[in-house]
Amino acid sequence: MKLGLRFRLIAFTFCLILTVGGSILGYSVYLGRDNIFNAFEREAIESAAVITESVLNDLYFFDLRGLDVRLAAARANTDIRRIDVMDLEGVVVAETGKGDSRLGHQLGGPLAAGMRSASTWLSISEGGFFHVAGPVSMPDGSRIGYLHVEFALDEPQARAHHLATGIFLMTLVCLAAGGAVAVGLSARFARPIVEMAHAARQIGGGMLETRISIKRNDELGVLAQSINELAANRQKAEKALAEKAEELTRSNQELEQFAYVASHDLQEPLRMITGYTQLLAKRYGDKLDQNANEYIDYAVEGAKRMQGLIRDLLTYSRVGTRGKEFALTDCEAVVAGTLRVLQPAIEESAATVTYDPLPTVMGDETQLLQLFQNLIGNAVKYRDSKPPVVHVSCKQEGEHWLFSVRDNGIGIDPQYANRIFVIFQRLHGRDKYAGTGIGLAVCKKIVERHDGKIWVESELGKGATFHFTIPTNGERT
Ligand code: ADP
Q1: For the chain, which ranges sit under pLDDT 50?
Q2: Is the CB–ligand 1 distance for residue 116 below 6 Å?
Q3: CB 412 near ligand 1, within 6 Å
Q4: pTM as predicted
Q5: Which atom of ligand 1 is nearest to the CA of 421?
Q6: Neighbours of 394 (CB within 10 A)
Q7: C-alpha neighbours within 13 Å on the C-beta side of residue 306
Q8: Calpha distance 434→406 (Å, rounded)
Q9: What was the pLDDT predicted at 474?
Q10: Rounded to whole angstroms, what are the CA distances from 334 to 71, 240, 361, 364?
């Protein structure tokens, strides 16, 4: 699953605050507890020293009553649970506080053992209590006994508990603050970035009217403004392009219309010229000299050529202006029809024309017939000494059909592969191969009207293959 920027920013900030805050708080707990117990130990040893001072005389004179009084007074300190005063043998001679009486007994445990060899106070936390033990010495340093004081740990434990509670509450505050900071950061930075990414994707996808509403004075504001400007500029450029394309289509249509009207209207006077020149030759041919008759022949030939050119030009201009609605068209039937039209040329050249099974496409049947007629007609016409062999094939390539018309004729120098599709462009003189140079230009126009492309693959002397495409969209095969 892809996590969004906002979620990641919140999670990252939260984890960061939790880690840093948690480490600081954890370390504080550790230090705090240590301090509490160290302070307690110091106070305990100080209390024990004060008690030692108070029992010194009574122990020296072995005044047990006095000792009891002193101990009772010392017990006023609520932390003290028990006090034992011992003679030099470690035998308890006076005691006060909780627990079984130890009078007359030696104190056991590691503390009692260490106490006799140590010169200072020993302390140990054992059995849930804190024990302090040390020697009772006269001002001259001579030891007269030992003292053991047992403290309850309630007070330091309560302080440590308070500390832990405080730190726990601080942790909660930290978490809440971390959450708030994370959400705040997300709202301040991640949300605008997410909004901009969304808008940029929409603009990239073509919804150019999309705008980002973020207004701020930092880099994010500049970025938002730049994206808006980019979208506006692209919108402007696309509008200008659409206008240009519309203008181009209009002027193209006007031009086609002009070519159509011009070639159509030129036919009539041309027919008159041809007709009257032929009449002139017929009626007055015997009255004119040889030269005059030759001039009349040239004039008739020129007029006929012009008629041919104008007829082809008319055909060319009709592709765009007089095309029919597209309908399902069986290309196999179209090719069969083409062959019937071309039958005389095929027979005359002893050509073999074959074709594979061909699909049904959405198109203008008349124009498709014209297309195949021009291509197959050329394949038969531009032959060398051998009889022409022509094959029409078709295969589906993704979203379109790829048609191919292959011949074994004279071929085309690849450098002229594009030129031959331009109107009136011919590679041969009229004396060798008749024609006006319009056929392939018509083919190109027809294929483009069908949303396809046309091109040739050939080498001089090695035949030529003309390819063109027609979209498959939705037709049956
Ligand atoms: P036209 O055949 O009237 O000259 P086209 O536009 O049909 O006009 O063809 C243009 C030129 O392309 C032709 O003059 C010829 O030189 C070349 N051409 C077309 N078809 C072939 C072909 N199958 N083999 C060789 N050359 C060809």
Answers
A1: 1, 476-477
A2: no
A3: yes
A4: 0.56
A5: 6
A6: 20
A7: 17
A8: 21
A9: 53
A10: 129, 42, 11, 11
